[in-house]
Every structure is written in C-alpha cells, then in structure tokens.
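#struct-help
A.M.: can someone run this one for me? Single chain, 116 residues.
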Amino acid sequence: MVQWKLKPILNTNLMNKLIRDGKVAVLVSPGHGAGWSTWNAEHEEILFDPAIVEFVEHNKWEELDVYVKLKYPQIYAGGMQDLQIEWLPEGTEFIINEYDGNESLEVKSDIVWHRA
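D.P.: on it. Structure tokens below:
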C-alpha cells in the first residue's frame, strides 16, 4: 500500500488564510478518487485560499468551479466537489495524507514516534 504525503509547507506565513477565533481554515478532500492539495502540491496556496473556503462554507459549488478555473487554470480540480474545511489553531504543524484520492489531515502533535 502506497501512501502519498504533501511536502512540508515552509512559507505559509506569506499565504492568504481565513482565520477566525485564532483558527485557520484548511481545505481537505476526503472523498475517494482525487485529492485536492495532494494532487496539486506545486500550488500550496489552495490549502488555505480564503475565497475557496467561503464558497465551500456556503455550498456555492458552481461559483467555486468558476473561481478555480479562472484563478488556478493549471490545477487538477477533481477533488474539489468533496472539499471540507478543517479548523486548526494558528501555528499548528500538519500534513495532508492521501490514499486513493482520500485526503486526511494529520497534526504533528498527534503523531506517535518510535525510536530504534
């Protein structure tokens, strides 16, 4: 079983994010078939894009489709219809895991490390 992981994001402080009550909106696509950010790793900003968050939050899927086609014409948007919002405290380190298109968010502090 192969599991793909999004490479670490180094400059997220420079990206636009939607922050409410000290929590950052992160977009994840848990449906099988296609990932969202994991299938577009060279466009890390789609993890946080405030406009996409607003469209998802208000179930404006047609408007989201138009926005993504105009702003990110080069991405594969197959996982877009399954997008969900995860709210993480500012500064939380995380990765997006993906298997068979199913993305899941994993917080660094929740990982149990083993030592040889």
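A.M.: thanks! The radius of gyration is 14 Å.
D.P.: also worth noting: The chain has a mean pLDDT of 88.
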